[in-house]
Amino acid sequence: MLAQRTELFDGTHAPLFPGVFAIFGHGNVLGIGNALEEVRSELPVWRGHNEQGMALAAVGISKATHRRQVGVATSSIGPGALNMVTAAGVAHANRLPLLLLPGDTFTGRAPDPVLQQVEHFHDPTATVNDAFRAVSRYFDRITRPEQLLSTLPQVARVLTDPADCGPVTLALPQDVQAESYDFPDALFKPVVHRLTRPRPDLHSLAEAARLIRSASRPLLVLGGGVRYSGAAGRALRFAEQHGIPITETTAGRTLVPHDHPLHAGPLGITGSTSANVLAGEADLVIAVGTRLQDFTTASWTVFAPDVHLVSLNAARFDAVKHGATALVTDADEGLRELTDVLGSWQAPGGWSARAAAERAKWDAHITSLRAPGSDLPTYAQVVGVVNEVSGPTDYVMTASGGLPGELIGGWRATGAATMDVEYGFSCMGYELAGAWGAAIAHTSGVVTTLLGDGSYLMLNSELFSASFAGHGFVAVVCDNDGYAVIHRLQTGQGGTGFNNLYADCRTSHASPPRTDFAGHAAAMGCAVFPVDSLDGLEDAYRKAREVAAGEKRPAVVVIRTHPSSWTEAGAWWEVGVPEVSHRAEIAAAHDEVVAGKAKQVRYLG
Asked: How many CB atoms lie within 10 A of CB 333?
């Protein structure tokens, strides 16, 4: 691990594995634990307090470093290992590198069944760690030490390959952990991992250029692959040279300066009406580094039925989706070569100007949503305050509930690649755990995570982990009395409020208890700044930033927010509304689903 280095975008070198998150148990404390203790001065080890949380923190490192460094987490066997499966799912869905080292049962089987072992009656080779297979890019169970000689190069490949990047799970039986082996010295020689940049096939490049030249209304969509390639500058120059409006996906947010004249805004359900309007009129979409998730495409209704799709992606799996003309390429190299082939070609000036005109309308809408006026602060108002105070080196995060829509749609970029909205898996709890990882990775600026009360209650143990380790970030907790955005989906599709807002949940109490978020966060070692109204939010947030940066511990701002005020981008999303129901409202909602599906573009060709 210590010998593995990585080349950052500025050409400097850093450890590929900056540290290890660990919770020790009988399955890893003596083997991996002793090994880590021997190098504790060279390889930081941070103690977690929930295996899912610490593994999510490891994911946060990988995202904050744009996949140039890899977070590592180790656990014992049984429940400790299974707790990390969700984090593997987050990394897999978001194409992020993550190395998981769960302990495993004895290969010798003499003491079977051991503590925390789940026995499979018809397969003695199966353990709970096989659950990782569904959420790992690469999985191996090391039953002999020498197997590492063939496995470790594959581990490094998956963790650093732009096309195959994702989580790696190495299940380590505790008796094998204890074995010795005379590994060759060459295994421990320093290795620097550099970003590979595959170039596009020339025939595909020519076909893509032909389609672009024939377009009168092209649209450029920038995804996470642009971020991980370090290609944001190239993408802007490409757009400027050819006069092509730019939109961003969730993973591509903040790649484009907000006020850039070609910036049409973020695309999709949680995006902006400005980008969605242009997408509906575009006759060609150039998708760069994106897998075109349903929230980006509005369940494939945001594009015109006769649109053509050119897809640049390092992964062929993504490049060929929906009948696209596929360029299997690094984003930076692909855009450079495409620029060379297109030469002086430009889109019509009237179309290019539409980006700024439409985005100005959306900006005015967001400004109106941020203006004070409601009794309880809205998410848009809270995000507006954080946005106004944040600077170009700050980093903002969220993951689930209603806040992704507010950040994706409403945030005005303060710096390049300064947002992490985990909306591939939309994992409740990532907001706090991932912020811990991001705070470790960020050496300048303040990390701010925004989350609802539901996410806070889902997973908050790593607040103490960050407090104890000395990693500061700001958490803005918006308390709206329950799972408000799912309540919105439930009632918006004809259902009645049930089991989401606390007012609709079963309880035997006439006056159910409320969570004291400020008191709880203080007990976890955090500085706390409760706020009663929007008026005091800016001052509280500024003070929280000072504490996070100066005292090296999390600072938590708690504010009550409106439960039913949201930023809307005017796009449709397909959900499974029952075809038959006792409620007429649900039947009507199902009819809307049928109508929406009729507008879906199934194959762009």
From this structure: 19
Q: What is the pTM of this model?
A: 0.97
Class of domain 4-193: alpha beta
Q: Read off the tokens for 269.
A: 């359900």
- Residues 541 and 493: their CA atoms lie apart, in Å, by 36
CB atoms within 10 A of CB 194: 12
Look at the block and give the residue holding tokens 């996949």: 67
Task: Specify the length of the chain in residues.
Answer: 605
Query: For strand 474-479 and strand 555-560, is the pairing parallel, antiparallel, or unpaired?
Result: parallel
3-state secondary structure of 170: strand
Number of H helices, E strands in the chain: 23, 21
CA gap 331, 492 in Å, rounded: 39
Annotate 244-311 with DSSP letters as a single string: --EEE-STTTTSS-TT-TTEEEE-STTS-HHHHHHHHH-SEEEEES----HHHHTTTTSS-TT-EEEE
Strands (DSSP E) found in 48-145:
71-75, 98-104, 138-141
- Domain extents in the chain: 4-193, 202-361, 371-560
Position 312, amino acid: L
pLDDT tens figures, 351-378: 999 999 999 999 999 999 999 987 899 9
Q: Let me know: does 55 contact 87? Beta carbons within 8 Å.
A: yes
Top-tier CATH class for 371-560: alpha beta
pLDDT of residue 603: 73
For the chain, how big is the Rg over CA atoms in Å? 25
Residue 12: Cβ within 10 Å count: 8
In one-letter notation, the amino acid at residue 363 is: D
CA distance 516 to 457: 11
Quickly count: other Cβ atoms within 10 Å of residue 508's Cβ: 5
| DSSP secondary structure string for all residues of 350-378 | HHHHHHHHHHHHHHHHHHHHHSS-SSSPP
pLDDT digits (tens, 9 = 90+) for 111-135: 999 999 999 999 999 999 999 999 9
Sort strands 167-173 and 98-104 into parallel, antiparallel or unpaired: parallel
CA 594 to chain centre: 31
* pLDDT at residue 374, as a whole number: 72
Measured in degrees and rounded to the nearest 5, phi and psi for residue 281 equal -105, -15
Q: Which two three-digit tokens encode residue 110? A: 């003499």
Reply yes or no on domain 202-361 having CATH 3.40.140.10: no
